[in-house]
Structures are given as structure tokens and as C-alpha cells.
Amino acid sequence: MSEVQQEQIQESQHEHHHEHHEHGSHHRHKSKLKPVLYTVLSFFLAFVLSLLSVCIVVTCTIFSSDYMIDTMRTNGYHEMVKSELQTDLEDLVDASGFEKQFVDSFVKKLDIRKAVEEYIASFYTGSSTLVETTSFKQKLYSAIEEYIQEKKITVSDETKGNIAYFVNEAADIYVTQISIPFFSTIANYIYKARSILNIVFISLSIVALVIAGIIFFTNEFKHRRFRYLFLGTTGAALTVLILPTVVLLSNKITKVNLVTRSLYTLFVNYFNGVFYSFYIWAGILVALSVVFMFLYVKHYRRVVH
């Protein structure tokens, strides 16, 4: 074999060794980069799932008239409003020359419940948020007529004027008791933001599915798929738990000052319910994490053995 041929063989072997070394180096570089990329994807999945959880909780509570009405029913709100309304009206009734028991003839729990729920429903439909007083006035006039007939009171023009004044004053008290100041402030924003919230919800759902899909379908090994999905759902669960825990432990909700007992009770139970709802969704995310952890361990053992 000539010297030239030997040199060519050596050069060929050297180039092959160099190419193999470069390929191995590139492969190692990719293998180190992949875990970093999937960890970043897991972080983004956790972030998106956290936002999605907030979106779901807000939709099911603050943006739901059913949630507000259920909170009122389960915490005796209507009974408290009835009691407070009776107390305020008794002073007016007494000053107007009626007997205090007269209040019982036109203040009924079911009427108050209906008025309150119609008032709440109006916020979520974007219609007028004024308290309807027509039915209340009609029942009050009917009760006054029965009272006058029973007591055989002579009705003069002055009496008619006093009755009209009394009815209007009673209606003002009624409106004050039925109205919910803090709710009426945010109701306008709730109605306007509902369509935007739906778009945000759909967008976040799509993004979460895309990220989860990338993690699942681009991982060669099954155990790695479930490991990164586990990281994403666990991170989301922990993030969702932070806000309600901080707020509830600070006890700031119960320190709010409101005019009446009924409003205070409603406010505290309403927002406690909102924040406790976060724990429900955190529990769902924890359940998903447990499933992914189980699948990760199951497939990892297969690889090891």
C-alpha cells in the first residue's frame, strides 16, 4: 500500500471520528435542553391553569345570580331584612298614629324574598336596578283601608294627604332595606365584563390544552409525559391555594363595617363562599396531580425494570 493511500485512510478515519464526536455532542446538548424546555412548559401550564381556575370560580360565584340568591337563602338574609324593615317601619307607624302591630299586615317574608330576588336578577340582565315599590305600595294602601274600616276612622282630605305621605315614607324605608349598596356598585361592571370573561375562559382553555398536548405528544417516554403534567397541575394547585388562604387567614372580610346586620352577614358569607370555592378547584387540580403522579411512577418502574 502506498504512502498516499495510507494518508487517505487515516484522514477518512479521523473525519469519521470527528463526525461521530460532533453527533454525540449535539445529542447530549439536545438531551440537556429538553428537560429545561419541558420544565418551562410545565411552568406555563401551571400559570394558565391557575388563571383558568380563577376564571371558573369568578364565573360560578360573582358572575352568577344563582350564587347570590343561594347565599341569601342559606344564611337567612330574607328573615333579617324582614325583621329590620319591621323595626324601621314600626317607628314610622307609631309616629303616624297606627298601632305597631299594623306593620305585620303588610310586611311578609315571601314578598320580601320575591322583591330581593327580582332586584338581584335585574343586575345580571342589565335592566333597571331600581327597587320595585308598586306592589309594596298597593299592599300598604289595602292594609290601610282595612285598618280604617276596622277602626271606623273618618277619612278627610287631610287624612288622605297624611296617608299618601306615610305610604311614600314607608316606600323609602322599604327601598333602603331591599337595596344592597356594595353590590349595586359592582353590578354594572359584572354585566359588561361577562362576555369578555367568556372569551378569556375559552382562550385559556385552548392554551392549556395546547401546552398539555405538546408535553404529552412530543415526549418519547411516557413517564416523562406524566412527570411534566404532574408538575404543571401541582404548581397550579399551589398557586390557586395562595390567594384564598392569605385573605381568609387575615380575617379582613369579617372586619368590614356595614350599616345593618343583614348586609354584614350577606357580605361575609358571600365573599367567604367565593374564596372557599378556590379550595374546591384546588382540590380538583390536586386530584389530577395524584393521577399523573400515579401514572408517572407506574411507567417509570417499567423503564427501570
In short:
The protein is an all-alpha fold and 305 residues long.
Secondary-structure blueprint:
Layout: H1 3-60, H2 65-74, H3 77-95, H4 109-125, H5 134-151, H6 157-178, H7 181-218, H8 222-250, H9 261-304
Helix pairs in contact: 1-7, 1-8, 1-9, 2-9, 3-4, 3-6, 3-9, 5-6, 7-8, 8-9
Question: Mind explaining what this structure looks like?
Answer:
Helices cover 84% and strands 0% of the residues. With 305 residues, the chain is mostly helical. The chain folds into two domains: 30-64 and 193-304, no CATH class; 66-183, no CATH class. Helix 7 packs antiparallel against helix 8 (222-250) and helix 8 (222-250) packs antiparallel against helix 9 (261-304).
Total count of strands? 0
Strand content: under 5%
Q: How many domains make up the 3D coordinates?
A: 2
Please give the count of helices.
9
Order of helices and strands: HHHHHHHHH
Mean pLDDT: 86
Spans of at least 5 consecutive residues with low confidence: 2-27
Shape: rod-shaped
The portion of residues assigned to helices is over 70%
Kindly name the structural category: mainly alpha
- As a whole number of angstroms, the C-alpha radius of gyration is 34 Å
Task: Report, as a whole number of angstroms, the end-to-end distance.
Answer: 51 Å
Largest sheet: none
